[in-house]
Design goal:
The protein has 424 residues and is of the alpha/beta class. It is built from 12 helices and 15 strands.
Length: 424
């Protein structure tokens, strides 16, 4: 585990004055995770003396990062004053650049969304996508959605190999994402710190801090978007792995039951994703251009979606079993852009498959985050540094999206045609 991860994951303080910065982080994390919380409880949880906790708390209150929320009555002695993170202590902006949309959110220190601008756009080229973020940034400032003086930074989440992995309908010009200077372009309209992360990991960061991760500190996040991604969270820390490929479940070799001979072993991402669902529906004469279209279908269309969800659930269930055997997390969380009603339907089918399989499997839950979970996670990255959250990763300040797709994991040809044959 990296040194930064070890430090940020430690909830035990030190009474040495040399460890002032570390102790500050311990107190901030404890308040964020257990708020409202008294100074006495902070001392018990951190191992710091009451005097040290009081000194740190007063400093944080003076910086407006923490506020005294209320007095707790009903216990012996004087009522204790409880502390909470001040929602207006700092603000942040997060953006998600996906193959099918661009979403930008503004959040406060509590993770509450103060503003949201969503644009459905297929395969936005770099200048268009960054331009949408710049426009949203200006809109938030003009509407005073956030306090510009308290802005911690801008986080951007986007898929790795954005212009390299082929998708149905992807224009040749989309390859311009490879090598595009995202940091240089953003620096043209703001000098705020910029944090960049993979989209699935960003969604897991949002879930870790403001979703089910508050209770479950080790989980695997399966992200169903235009593609399929994943993220590994262990003991409150997102793990990238040595090469940055940790959690890339979309490349998991999967036995496709109804594929033609010679094509039955397929990457999981070519069997389960929104674009795979769209291709399936197109093969039956139904055009889907956005997730919302899936909720306004007639009876035949809804039956087709259910058929696809049941088939996809079989693959997800098998993947969940393998994940459980490999890393044994508290849970597997499934989120992304698939509408909540359809996610719940898929999860019911996953549960049916798991109930019939004798192999052990972790608990399966729908992620608490909405379709903006990735943008929320992107906005959380700047907050994580200010509030010393466990998810803070200094590498996000310099990270660039992965490019140069290794030949060994190039998608197998003919998957869209195979799906059409399967559904014929």
């Amino acid at each position: 585990m990296r040194q930064a991860e070890r430090t940020m994951n430690d909830l035990t303080g030190s009474n040495s004055e040399l460890a002032a910065s570390h102790n500050r982080g311990v107190i901030l994390r404890a308040i964020q995770r257990h708020q409202p919380i008294s100074r006495t409880e902070l001392a018990q949880r951190s191992g710091l003396t009451k005097q040290t906790v009081t000194r740190i708390a007063e400093r944080l209150i003076g910086e407006k990062l923490v506020l005294e929320a209320r007095r707790r009555h009903g216990q012996p002695g004087q009522p204790s004053i409880e502390l909470e993170i001040n929602p207006d202590g700092c603000h942040s902006i997060g953006a998600y650049i996906a193959r099918d949309h661009v979403a930008v959110v503004a959040i406060d220190a509590s993770g509450a969304v103060r503003g949201r601008i969503h644009t459905e756009v297929a395969f936005a080229l770099p200048e268009q996508a960054i331009g949408l973020i710049e426009e949203a940034f200006a809109t938030f400032k003009r509407r005073r959605t956030i306090d510009e003086r308290r802005l911690a930074g801008l986080g951007i989440a986007l898929p790795d190999w954005l212009g390299e992995i082929p998708f149905p309908g992807m224009p040749a010009a989309y390859a311009s994402w490879t090598g595009y200077d995202v940091r240089g372009r953003v620096a043209a309209f703001t000098d705020l710190p910029l944090y960049i992360e993979n989209d699935a990991i960003a969604a897991a960061i949002g879930e870790l801090n403001y979703g089910l991760g508050v209770e479950s500190r080790s989980f695997f996040y399966i992200f169903i978007g235009s593609g399929l991604g994943g993220a590994v969270v262990l003991d409150g820390v997102c793990h990238h792995g040595v090469t940055g490929l940790s959690g890339e479940i979309g490349w998991l070799p999967t036995l496709a039951a109804d594929m033609p001979e010679g094509s039955r072993i397929q990457p999981l991402g070519q069997l389960v994703s929104l674009y795979v669902l769209y291709e399936f529906m197109a093969a039956h004469g139904i055009t889907i251009t956005a997730p919302a279209d899936l909720l306004s279908l007639d009876l035949r269309g809804r039956a087709l979606v259910s058929d696809w969800l049941r088939g996809a659930a079989r693959y997800i269930a098998d993947a969940a079993i393998h994940i459980g055997l490999l890393i044994d997390p508290d849970a597997v969380l499934i989120g992304g852009r698939l509408p909540v009603q359809l996610l719940d339907e898929m999860l019911s089918y996953v549960s049916e498959y798991l109930a019939r399989d004798p192999r052990p499997a972790p608990a399966i839950h729908r992620a608490a985050g909405s379709e903006d979970a990735t943008a929320l996670g992107a906005a959380t990255m700047p907050l994580a540094e200010v509030l010393r959250l466990e998810s803070y990763d200094p590498a996000q300040r310099t990270r660039l999206p992965l490019t140069g797709l290794p030949p060994v994991i190039h998608p197998m040809p003919g998957w869209a045609d195979a799906l059409r044959r399967e559904s014929a």
